[in-house]
Backbone:
């Protein structure tokens, strides 16, 4: 497996996670209620699968530094996501907007770094 392939697979999965994340944000802010659990699970499933591919590639394939920074940011976003789920969602408490925005911002920046690294690998190789 090449670095570009691993990053590309992760980017496809994260793109689905991003789209579902946007739906989750609209569901949270549109009704002043937490989003439906099924959307949360699909979002988490795509994100976790993409993250596992990223970790595998980081340890066994090797990525450029830009991608590794993206992996670290995705890990931080995952922490925020798990915190939202276990601290608020499962306890039927409204998720604070600052946590939703922080999770989304960190995840999108990480995704952009990973996408940029993948595109740079495609252009050089």
Residues:
């Amino acid at each position: 497996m090449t670095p570009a392939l691993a990053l590309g697979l992760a980017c496809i999965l994260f793109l689905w996670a991003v789209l579902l994340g946007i739906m989750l944000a609209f569901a949270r802010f549109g009704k002043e209620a937490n989003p439906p659990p099924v959307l949360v699970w699909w979002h988490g499933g795509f994100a976790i699968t993409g993250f596992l591919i990223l970790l595998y590639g980081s340890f066994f394939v090797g990525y450029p530094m830009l991608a590794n920074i993206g992996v670290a940011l995705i890990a931080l976003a995952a922490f925020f996501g798990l915190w939202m789920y276990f601290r608020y969602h499962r306890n039927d408490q409204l998720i604070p907007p600052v946590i939703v925005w922080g999770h989304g911002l960190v995840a999108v920046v990480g995704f952009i770094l990973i996408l940029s690294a993948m595109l740079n690998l495609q252009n050089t190789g």
